[in-house]
Amino acid sequence: MLGRLCLLLGFVSLLVGCGDPALHPISGKVSLDGKTYERLLVYFHPLDREPNEFSIGVGETDKDGVLVLRTSAGPGIATGNYRVTFSCIQAVRGGKTVTLGAGSEKADDDRSLVTKDIVPQQYGSKTDSPVEFQVQAGENVFDFDIPAK
After folding, report:
1. Does 11 map to a domain?
2. Cα pseudo-dihedral 109, 125, 129, 64, rounded to 10
3. What is the pLDDT of residues 94-143, one digit of tens each?
4. Do 72 and 58 meet the contact criterion of CB atoms below 8 Å apart?
5. Which of 85, 80, 81 lies closest to 128, judged by CA?
6. Mean pLDDT computed over every residue of the chain
7. Strands 132-135 and 80-87, sheet pairing
8. I need a surface site. Which of 38, 81, 112, 125 has the fewest CB within 10 A?
9. Domain of 64: which CATH number?
10. How many domains does the chain have?
11. Residue 51 burial (CB count, 10 A)
């Protein structure tokens, strides 16, 4: 009887520390050389842990450059240190320059569509981006202007 009770208590104590990590909101404003772009993509890559659904963040800016970041587990991201990368894909469609993002219609079948990432290559690289951010418990503000060169 005492052996079963000890086994049960040991099992319960293991479960206590096994909850999902809390997600903390990230908001802010992101621009490229002082100009805001709708659908500029922002990625947070964990530096101090293995990537999982709580620690890979993706955000997209609105026309005013306002960013809201989320993970596949929901809005926000786990605490930790992250390398930040950016992407802003533009294309000419119907004589007009448009920015393509996560909410864009697919252009896979349009072979005449020429696209270009207008973010400098260094800032789009998971290994070379100089931008790092530490997410702390609570609200986090990430304001950043990507240099053009």
Report:
1. no
2. 10
3. 777 767 765 555 555 566 677 889 999 999 999 999 999 999 999 999 99
4. no
5. 85
6. 84
7. antiparallel
8. 112
9. 2.60.40.10
10. 1
11. 9
